[in-house]
Amino acid sequence: MKRIILLRHGQSVWNLENRFTGWTDVELTAQGRDEAADAGRLMHDAGLLPDIAFTSYLRRAIHTLQLSLASMERDWIPVIKDWHLNERHYGALQGLDKADTARRYGDEQVYRWRRSFDVTPPPITADDPRYPGFDPRYSALAQDELPLSESLQDTIARVRCCWEELIVPAMQSHDTALVAAHGNSLRGLAMMMQHLTATEIVSVEILTGRPWVFEVNDRMQVINQYHL
After folding, report:
1. Which of 57, 60, 216, 223 could form a disulfide with 12 if both were Cys (CB 3.0 to 4.6 A apart)?
2. 85-111 pLDDT, tens per residue?
């Protein structure tokens, strides 16, 4: 039996400020750092010691991974960073206060942007400072890979690349993988592993700093799943 552990990053500065974050690279709060370290202790106490880890290109996920591994004294394991694990890109909503946005556009519209499977928020333009093409970490990506906005469906489609090309092959030679990423990218992994429908996945909530363990067989079929 092998294990894949999903860990949503701890509270970020913009989580605390109730802003749409997306690909904006914000830091963890003090509470978020504590959540990450506590998650590592939970995994250690449960005897769940990863031998490989995956994370996104965003520091709130990277630092969550580093802090959790430090709590387990597993800093030395190989870590693969993949932009496909980034949070959903919220387009022109990124940086906006969620309550202010609801007052401007209405609760129903904001709910559709946030919680629908295939509804895309208003896009940014390629000359917007928030456009990923201005960020050197994405310089190797083709223009059609750089999002202007994404639905949950779009996010899950790119997360599938990481799952099929990196995570599944790695599990052939590793027993326990830790994936420290974001609410929507982790929902994508959960959807694939559990074979959830579009209707089912939109109601899935992933708590910050709470390890979600999937036990899988050699064919990567889930045989058990639980939260620590």
Report:
1. 60
2. 999 999 999 999 999 999 999 999 998
The one catalytic residue in 63, 84, 87, 182 is 87
Strands in 222-227's sheet, in edge-to-edge order, are: 79-81, 52-55, 176-181, 2-8, 212-216, 222-227
Q: What is the pLDDT of residue 59?
A: 98
Phi, psi of 127 (to 5 degrees): -100, 5
Could you give the angle at the alpha carbon of 12 between the alpha carbons of 147 and 209, nearest 5°? 105
DSSP letter assigned to residue 155: H
d(C-alpha 151, C-alpha 18), whole Å: 20
Distances (CA, A) of 144 to 11, 108, 141: 31, 30, 8
Does 87 qualify as catalytic in the annotation?
yes
DSSP label at residue 12: B
Mean pLDDT by 10 residues, the chain (228 residues): 97 96 97 98 97 98 98 97 98 95 93 93 96 97 96 97 98 97 97 95 92 96 97
The two structure tokens encoding residue 86: 């980034």
Q: Please state the pTM of the whole predicted model.
A: 0.96
At 110, phi and psi to the nearest 5? -65, -40
Q: Is 9 a catalytic residue?
A: yes
Say which of 9, 89, 174, 182 is annotated catalytic.
9
Q: Quick one: pLDDT at residue 16?
A: 95
Place of tokens 């974050």: 21
